[in-house]
Design brief:
Layout lengths: L9 E3 H4 L5 H4 L5 H10 L2 E6 L3 H12 L6 E4 L4 H12 L7 E4 L2 E4 L1 H10 L2 H8 L5
Parallel strand pairs: 1-3, 2-3
Antiparallel strand pairs: 2-4, 4-5
Helix pairs in contact: 3-5
Keywords: Cytoplasm, Redox-active center
InterPro entries: GlrX-like_pln_2, Glutaredoxin, Thioredoxin-like_sf
Pfam families: Glutaredoxin
């Protein structure tokens, strides 16, 4: 019997970070690296490890044809990353946080409300996540 190749759609931030400065190594995660991940992707979901709301947002976006990366944060790193992203977004960041084109869009409620109103697909097209 053949064995399946494991597939990971979620990337823990501790493994996705680059070379960390000495101050960030004590925390285990570099908030600047998370901010870089946000700026490098059209759509990014950042949430707590094992968060069911992140799964809901991801499945909704996948149903529309977007395959967003989900960056999971360990609970020890949530406050540092939230503070750093809040400073960049000029708004309070709550998890799950959904970013479109490097800008904070909102959480699950905002994504769902925008989808129900029919405005989500044009926003995804403007962000560069959908081409059709």
């Amino acid at each position: 019997m053949q064995q399946a190749i494991p597939y990971r759609s979620c990337i823990p931030t501790a493994t996705a970070t680059r070379h960390l400065p000495d101050s960030a190594q004590s925390n285990g995660v570099d908030p600047g690296a998370v901010a870089a991940m946000v700026s490098e992707n059209a759509v990014v979901i950042i949430g707590k490890r094992g968060c069911c709301m992140c799964h809901v947002v991801k499945r909704l976006l996948q149903g529309l044809g977007v395959n967003p990366p989900v960056y999971e944060l360990h609970e020890d790193h949530e406050a540092a990353v939230a503070n750093h992203l809040s400073a960049l977004a000029a708004d309070t960041v709550h998890f799950p946080a959904v970013f479109f084109a490097g800008k904070l869009f909102g959480g699950l409620e905002r994504v769902m409300a925008t989808h129900i109103s029919g405005e989500l697909v044009p926003i995804l097209k403007d962000a560069g996540a959908l081409w059709l």
